[in-house]
Amino acid sequence: MPTYEYVCTKCAHEMEAFQSMKDEPLKVCPACKKRTLKRKVGGGAGLIFKGTGFYITDYKKKTGTKPESGESKSVSKPTESKATSSAAK
User: Fold this and answer.
1) Average per-residue pLDDT in the chain?
2) Which class does domain 1-43 fall in?
3) Can you list the positions of beta strands (E) in 1-89?
4) Which of 5, 27, 36, 48 could form a disulfide with 9 if both were Cys (CB 3.0 to 4.6 A apart)?
5) pTM strictly above 0.85
6) Where are the domains of the chain?
């Protein structure tokens, strides 16, 4: 249930009311008891999504995936023969 903000046009009293969306707007000011209470237009808090599947990172491709079993990584390592031949010089 949303929280609505109200302001009295007569005495400028401001208040918040926790109401159902189906409820009629309040009309009587609790401070001056006049029927001059108006609901303020607010931007709202926005939607809050909880759980998985709502964030861009949930569907992001993983860049560092493991290679499949048939694939081999090609890493350039110096071979032992080259390392020993350069060390012998």
Assistant:
1) 75
2) mainly beta
3) 3-8, 14-18, 37-39
4) 36
5) no
6) 1-43
